[in-house]
Amino acid sequence: MPLDRVKEAEGILRANDRGGYTVPAQGLYPFQWLWDSGFVALGWAVLDGDRAFAELETLFLGQWENGFLPHIVFHREDAGYFPGPEIWGSGRKPQTSGITQPPFLAPVLLHLARKFGEKGKAQARKLYPRLLALHRFLHLYRDPEGTGLVAVLHPWETGMDNSPAWDLPLKRVPRYPVPPEARRDTKHVPPEERPRLEDYERYLYLVSLFRSLNYDPASCYRESPFRVVDVGFNALLLFADEALVELAGLLGEDPSEPRGWWQRGLSALEALWDEEAGLYRSLDLFSGKRIPRATSAGFLPLLLPLPRSRAERLLTTFRSWAGEARYLFPSVLPSALYFEARRYWRGPVWAPVNWLLAWGLVRQGFHEEAARLKKDLLALVEGSGFREYYHPFTGEGLGGRGFSWTAALYLAWVQ
Ligand code: 2M8
């Protein structure tokens, strides 16, 4: 791996470091994002263990008293992002958003605790109760009927904002007028690489609704016109529940509560399996139906223990996708009508997805495909720099530049 790219990756993390937290990209995303911080901590772990733990500790400064962890913590003011803290009006200090993101944090803490020995365990002990409180919040308030799977109430909570999987459920959400000039993202990035205005109008309707409910979790769940069991979010939550069980073992804590969530969730996940399509699909809780869209999130259950036949079926689907793209892994099946090669979560290749899928493929023993995901991501970075996402046919870099999670995962992968 080219040494200058390693240096560049390190330079990006240092340039995006705001002292205890890392912004995803200068200008475009000037605050701390939940799941970005998880990936970024893996990169910091290569350079500086204390800084890796600090990333998570600073994120948890934004945790609410009920265990909820917001998807953005606004540690400092910056007018460069919309919607900013004044729109969210969470009334918290530090100011935060009022929705969450995939809780990809316990696997990171487990990795850090193992990597940094006694010191790592001492740090993990401080964060463990906070993580447990977050998971408890999610299993309680986002699964009030105890089905084993949790709901997301906003497309931003999935981390895959304008995924085609949300097109149909989002139709139930009214449009809230957003003057095009209010958006800041399209000033940093060409509009054809970002979500459409119509999507933003629905995103903002949900924000105004949750704000009017004072972010009360039970009311938000009840009132939200968008209520989806996202297969990606649930796979990552269950993977994180499993990591909590392992952390509990490492730290001498009682693992029974996370083990219960994990076991119940694993059997409930069966409802998301689509045998005919050979992949998992999200569930729209209003229609009660699985959402017929082929997205990369449907492969994330590879991170979980799966029966052999299921894992092999998923592998077959993976291979058929691989036959349709030059660079893996496209966020949407390229031959699908709703695929858009340059538009954000509707087609491009994303570093964290490659990294998570590779981890899952290794877990299932599919080393060759995991190696391909790594090879492709490294080739994209080496050819096009540390971008937010990449064109799956040409390898062109898209979206933000100097992107933290791409730099961090590159470091973690080449170390
Ligand atoms: C993107 O989402 C934010 C909203 O959270 C946005 O577009 O304004 C997504 O790619 C999300 O997954 C990511 O965490 C965030 C920061 O990188 O940007």
UniProtKB/TrEMBL annotation:
InterPro entries: 6-hairpin_glycosidase_sf (IPR008928), 6hp_glycosidase-like_sf (IPR012341), Glycoside_hydrolase_63 (IPR004888), MGH1-like_GH (IPR054491). The keyword DNA-binding does not apply. The keyword Cell inner membrane does not apply. Keywords: Glycosidase, Hydrolase. It holds the Pfam family MGH1-like_GH. Residues 29-406 form the Mannosylglycerate hydrolase MGH1-like glycoside hydrolase domain. Belongs to the glycosyl hydrolase 63 family. This is Neutral trehalase.
